[in-house]
Amino acid sequence: MSIPVVDPPRYDDQLAAKCQRIRRQFARFAPPDLEVFASPPSHFRQRCEFRIWHAGDDLFYAMFAVDPDDPKQKRVVRLDQYPVASRRINALMPRLRDVLLESPVLRHKLFQVEFLTTLSGAALVTLIYHRQLDDAWEVEARQLQERLGIDIIGRARKQRLVLCRDHVWERLEVEGQTFHYQQVENSFTQPNAEVCRSMLAWARDATRGSQGGDLVELYCGNGNFTVALAENFRRVVATEISRVSVVSAQQNLAANGIDNVHVARMSAEEFAEALAGEKTGRRVAAMALGDHDFSTVLVDPPRAGLDEASCRQLSEYRRIVYISCNPDTLERNLEFLSQTHDIERLALFDQFPWTGHCECGVLLVRREA
């Protein structure tokens, strides 16, 4: 992996380079002016994971840098601070290390540490081991919880010990509203909370005035967009394949008092079959698809993007909101979707500063026959 070099005075230059790349890459689709949403230049990641490197009586947080001349060669990079990570993570890093150095029980065969934090300062720390955890570990881990004011989970092979809770609650202020999100350990969440707020505000604006129609959301995760967009539509059907994410999405809808959303545990492909009447059963019946008028589809796929069958499914909708973490697969999908739809809005969200990664948002509207 490449460890980002954070240089805040150069932030505008690195963002400008990304904007130039996106404008050039998508120019042939004739999009409108690119909307750009910047990130804080440092301390923007609310979750991070580090290897723990043991060196005699010492231990430290580590990442691995790949030798560009020989990709098989990796070198250990010691990290006492990590300016990419949230200020809460950076504050915890030395304090946690000090306790680990003092405790033979907690440090023994400790392999990895994962941090999950929120804008308000809540923190969940997962300690991952190459050994089974016992009562002695639990006693000291509970003391560590109290000492640092955090929640702790211990993991080992076929073992997961949750000492208090397995999640944090994030609060995001978007357009004057506060949305509450349960974020579960070891499940996907948007890592850059400030940019996530921008993404939600953009998606809300792009779908405003849709109360007469219904929304279908594919790959809804823990309901990140679902919660923020529900009030823009009459009804919402959201699909997700991960059982943990489905449960978390339902918790988030309840926490925000939202009652016009149905979350179904099924893949995008299964939903297409259900919509076409090719799939039946209890889960399909619960969605009451015949009662919906889906005017808009929102899709936030993995980096691999969508296959042609999924693009064909999307092209049936009047409006498509496509959130992409990979401009290259987005470009490939737009080759298909632009046959029937025009790009009305194109946005760049700098979710991952100091890397080559870009997050994009596209609003497509079907051309009238």
Q: What is the makeup of the main sheet?
A: 8 strands, mixed
Spatial arrangement of strands, main beta sheet: 1-16-17-15-14-11-12-13
- What Rg, in angstroms, do the CA atoms define? 22 Å
End-to-end separation: 48 Å
Derived structural class? alpha/beta
For the secondary structure, the number of strands is: 17
Individual helix count: 11
Form type: globular
Percentage of β-strand residues: 25-35%
Mean pLDDT: 93
Measured as a percent range, the helix fraction is: 25-40%
Low-confidence stretches: none
Query: What is the string of SSEs from the N terminus onward?
Result: HEEEEHHEEHEEEEHEHEHEHHEHEHEE
Describe the overall structure.
The protein is α/β, with parallel strands linked by helices and 369 residues long. Helix content is 31%, strand content 32%. It contains 11 helices and 17 strands. A hairpin with a 2-residue loop joins β2 and β3. The relative contact order is 0.12.
